[in-house]
């Protein structure tokens, strides 16, 4: 027993030494890290087979045990795969992935089905296996391996959107492929009832849905426990380690759901919700720990899977080469159907952003298979219920196909991406980089010349080094002069990109100093990323569109509004509004700091004229942010005050912490006192992390009191109106009243602005105005169309309640008359006035 432990530790140590050596070797040979690991693992596997076959019984028992490590498919599926999948889900930029969710899902789910059908159908005429066994092989080879794909794409300077699509596909298609693998495996196992078509339509969706639900619930419970352990960061990290393994075993072995789907959903849930629940330092440490675990898991999974290659290929025949070629051609055909058939169709139907041709070629060639495919093939060869001929052929064909993708595609993927120009600087960026280098070197020469004055250095050495540096500077200036013909329009675009890049840095700095919470920082970084891409595509106009989009509530705002208006479920809207408060307050501060960057850096590169334009663009954006803050302050005055107090307190804590660090550095306080002071600040900061609750119901009563038209209501009327009136939130461009519709409601504008189109004329209404009363008073269909031109909050009252209030309240009658007269509608109201309306309305 003791010797077994020693052998296990020895094997583990040797594997980690191999992992350590493989990284510099890969760098030296300019090969992907995963390919070097696969070569090393396969070489070790071949060496073990050769040693055992040649030396046989002469080997010691301990050495024989070491050469025949008991590697089983369960090791990959239960130990390494949850770690790898969970970390990828934890590290994805989910908010940016939402922009490309259609192509990601298409490549992750539909592509698995298409590849299974293509490979199985193409292989069936030539294979000794039955059709269903061919489909089983198709499911095995349809999954792209996250450890192979992610490591290669993250190691290349690929465009972010391409990396997002490929990483999302490699993560999500594992779940679909493994679920399909389990379905077809039951057909080829002897003594197991074959599932019916009904089982497929009910069983597969329920398995995936069960995994989704299990992953979400476990992640939420884990987050709740981690919040309760806020004072123990190491306990929080330890709990996060248990999440993927616990959720995998619970879903796969207890509930009969998809364990991989559960792990993916758990990781994505933690990724989405965790930054807003955990302290910034804890969240940063958690991601770093998981990156290290995933690095080890990815390396071990490649080495150990490659050790299996000789075992899986030991019964290969010459004719199997043809079958492997059939699998390769069918798999490529399936991906081409998706990339050149389905994705363009989705783009034409406006369901997906366009995926450019170079991206599609890179995705086609980047569909690497690896340890997941080998693990599934190994699971088939270990299953005693599967016929021996199926075991042999599945193992050989899956392994042969994996070897092709690793050694043919993996070794050339970087070259393909470079040939497609996806890593090459655009001519404009190249010209800019030359100018930036020239400016930077000029600054370096000035600072070095000033610094050497204070050092007793040899004048001859100083002159010699200055001459060498001067030659380098002259070359940089000459290269920069070649690009001086850059148009002003392009310089503005480049200046805006530099501005957005510095905004990204300021958000990160504010997060590190705990001025912004983790969740809001990630959302702001996502908005900046969209701003950069919009600027690259559309220049100045693209920057403006991206800036306007960042002021919106997001794609889930309408859902939250519907839940609030229809079902009275206010929490989602409350959380989104509170998040918006926090983001806008920090964004206002960051935008103010960007002006100094324009004057300090961008002006020296692009000139005074471009700098002035950038100041103007930034001023417009600042004004829009200020208007958005003011709109929220008008809607929620009490909450706005609390958020501003919270903002000031966090700022004060940050400055106080910096002062204590300075005192320690200057030797004015000791280490013990410094630790005590920092701990007191940590407690105050934890209390500030509890954001004040935004109660929309309370805010409605506040808004009612601020409406001039409702100022004369007594306490009883106010309570009645508060019960009957509903709050409506509208986005820019949303039609609130449509011409020709029956008049059933009147609206009071609490914040924002709307545009009224009546009789060919346009008129804008602002806070405190009411509209919609004319149709009710005349009892005619709507004669005007009202559209929101900003984010608006409105109070909506139904027809009968409005008429009841109108009869009993002089203030409201006067407000209706003034509003109608001010907009030139008095005559229309009088002509259509029914006989039972109050005389005050007729004017």
Record the SSE blueprint.
Elements: H1 2-29, H2 33-55, H3 61-67, H4 73-91, H5 94-97, H6 101-123, H7 131-141, H8 146-154, H9 160-188, H10 197-228, H11 233-254, H12 259-277, H13 280-307, H14 309-313, H15 320-348, H16 357-365, H17 371-382, H18 388-410, H19 413-419, H20 427-451, H21 459-482, H22 488-512, H23 518-550, H24 557-567, H25 571-606, H26 608-635, H27 637-665, H28 671-689, H29 696-706, H30 715-724, E1 726-730, E2 735-737, E3 745-751, E4 754-758, E5 761-765, E6 770-771, H31 773-778, E7 784-788, E8 792-798, H32 799-808, H33 810-822, H34 826-831, H35 839-842
Antiparallel strand pairs: 1-8, 2-7, 3-6, 3-8, 4-5, 4-7
Helix pairs in contact: 1-2, 2-13, 4-11, 4-12, 4-13, 4-17, 6-7, 6-9, 6-15, 7-9, 7-18, 8-9, 9-10, 9-12, 10-11, 10-12, 11-12, 11-13, 12-23, 15-16, 15-18, 17-18, 20-21, 22-23, 22-25, 22-26, 23-25, 24-25, 25-26, 25-27, 26-27, 27-28
Q: Can you give a write-up of this model?
A:
With 843 residues, the protein is mainly alpha-helical. The chain folds into six domains: 2-67, no CATH class; 73-225 and 258-419, Na+/H+ antiporter like fold, CATH 1.20.1530; 443-485; 488-635, no CATH class; 648-694; 698-842, Jelly Rolls, CATH 2.60.120.10. The chain contains 35 helices and eight strands. It has a four-stranded antiparallel sheet with strand order 1-8-3-6. It has a four-stranded antiparallel sheet with strand order 2-7-4-5, with no helix packed on it. A hairpin with a 2-residue loop joins strand 4 and strand 5 (761-765). The radius of gyration is 33 Å and the shape is globular. The chain starts with a helix and ends with a helix. Residues 825-843 have low confidence and may be disordered.
